[in-house]
Amino acid sequence: MTHTMTDTQAVKSYFLSLQANIVQALEAVDGKAFLTDSWERPEGGGGISRVIEEGQVFERGGVNFSHVMGNNLPPSAAASRPELAGRKWEAMGVSLVLHPRNPYAPTVHMNVRFFTTHAEGKEAVWWFGGGMDLTPYYGFEEDARHFHQTCKISLSPFGDELHARFKKWCDEYFYLKHRKEARGVGGIFFDDFNQLDFEQSFAMTRSVGDAFIPAYRPILEKRCGLAYGERERDFQAYRRGRYVEFNLVFDRGTHFGLQSGGRTESILMSMPPIVKWRYNWTPEAGSPEEQLSTHFLAHREWV
Fold first, then answer.
1. Which residue numbers mark the site Important for dimerization (predicted)?
2. Cα 249 to Cα 27: distance, rounded to the nearest angstrom
3. Residue 126 phi/psi, 5° resolution?
4. Which of 120, 178, 243, 269 would suit a FRET pair with 98, their CA atoms being 20 to 30 Å apart?
């Protein structure tokens, strides 16, 4: 299960090309260029943040690459393997969140990442993680089915059981326990993955990363031109509050970034620009807003 420095460089090269390819595809949809912000981390490493704000389609979004390292693995990264806490570590990946302006176009999140840890006299321990999930404000059956089908196809060459397992993992991970509510319609999620050898684990991670644009772009293009009004924008802002709650309270990536001394601007890039909270509000019975909770956020088998 070992890997070499050459392997690590191959992963980094892939992540950089993935970031560039995704940004290029999104710029073609929006028409506005993403700004590029390169940064260095005093403790070691750095990254490239690609950010769009007030675009034609995207109200806010970012596609971030980071490659960081340190001498003491944070607890959030060693949650399932406490024996690795305190080791030297290296982490790299691409993480994106996109918040379209149109309430009929869903928010989306995707990330793929690679970790390796080192300790004197011990074999390096490595793993991959990642996935993508869709967070609509107004639900469309065909959008959810398309997104899940694309995720399933990306995993199928690597094992028939993976999609069901990663789909369930996503449902359970992107869940607001204090609300007893899913964040969105799910997708796939995996972490601490090294059950295949390095080459196959890396190939699976590439397949997931490469599936993002085919999974999301057709939905975005179909929905971003639909007419909407203040009611829809208001509900979108209310539901975005759930996104903020999840990322700050539960998300391991956010916690890892902050615990490891990461770059706050890049970590909190995932936050939507306009959000509302209300006290004890419920949508009108029979409305599309109510249907989101009753029909789309309930865990379902979409494909």
1. 178
2. 31
3. -125, 160
4. 178
Query: Active-site residue 163, yes or no?
Result: no
Mean pLDDT by 10 residues, the chain (303 residues): 73 98 98 96 91 97 94 72 78 96 98 88 87 98 98 97 97 95 96 94 98 98 98 97 92 80 80 93 95 94 95
- Is 111 annotated in a binding site? The answer is yes
- The verdict on whether residue 67 carries a ligand-binding annotation is no
Confidence (pTM):
0.93
Query: What is the spatial distance between Cα 170 and Cα 131, in angstroms, rounded to a whole number?
Result: 8
Q: What is the 3-state secondary structure (H, E, C) of 177-211?
A: CCCCEECCCEEEEEEEECCCCHHHHHHHHHHHHHC
Per-residue tokens: 118: 């080192």
Token digits for 232?
């829809």
What's the pLDDT score for residue 270? 86
- The DSSP output letter for 37 is E
